[in-house]
Amino acid sequence: MSTELPVLAAVDGSESALDAVRWAAAEAARRRTWLRVVSVHPWPIAGYPDTLVDGRQLLAGLRAQTKDNLNRAVDAAAAEEPDLEIRSEALEGDVVAHLRDASRGAVVLVLGSRGLGGFSGMLLGSTAVALVAHGHCPVVVVRGDHPSLEGRVLVGVDGSDTDDAALAFAFEYAKASGSSVAAVHAWSDVVLEAARAAGYAQLDWEPLARGAAELLTSRLDPWRAKFPEVAVEPLVARARPARLLLDQAVGAALVVVGSRGRGGVAGMLLGSTSQALIRHAPCPVAVVRPRAEQP
């Protein structure tokens, strides 16, 4: 039995969760570790008339459904990676609290992008936002019709203190999977754009473009030296970060971005770029926080 930290997959019985657990199984095999599959159901809501449903019956039904969800997920993971060690666990209570605690003992937490009934609020809504912002490990939201480990790794570089964590994850993933890295830096200047729109057409964008290219080069150089076997494609563009990353994500195996998740309002601190990616990207998205910010 492996003592390495596992890949953690959260499932809820949805088809999206099965896609996530398959991706998680392949990721666990790639990392040469094991897979932990967890399903959490809340406590039954009180207040039902006794003539309709008994609390004990409702709890028994939730437990039975959770067990069935886990069995389906384990079967899907085993079909993907027959030799993988897989352990499953049913938990009761607050979903975010349980998964956040479980993430403390995982190398990565994997979630589906759509919950039961097709509503992107079961696993993706406040639950995923809270886990991405406040979890103890990187979080991958598995998106796309046919998510795969094949293809280039796209990483967003914004010049902040989250860059190194995102670049480390991207380069390590690319090395292990034999992929290349496409490093993207989007730049814009709202003040100059407003001035140009007002008729100042002679504004010179070149210093900003040159500074953006130099920033990306300086961020990439240490990782190119550390991972010389990984091919790197830098891309600098005057664009909004979310739009550029979404455009470039077509055909990618994974998009990696950093996140600053400290504080109390997870949805605001997650940031518009990360929010847009985990809701709209055509492929899986990894959101990585700097180690110093992980609780």
TrEMBL record:
It holds the Pfam family Usp. Keywords: ATP-binding, Nucleotide-binding. SUPFAM superfamilies: Adenine nucleotide alpha hydrolases-like. InterPro entries: Rossmann-like_a/b/a_fold, Universal_stress_UspA, UspA. GO terms for molecular function: ATP binding. Residues 7-143, 152-289 form the UspA domain. Belongs to the universal stress protein A family. This is Nucleotide-binding universal stress UspA family protein. It comes from Actinokineospora auranticolor.
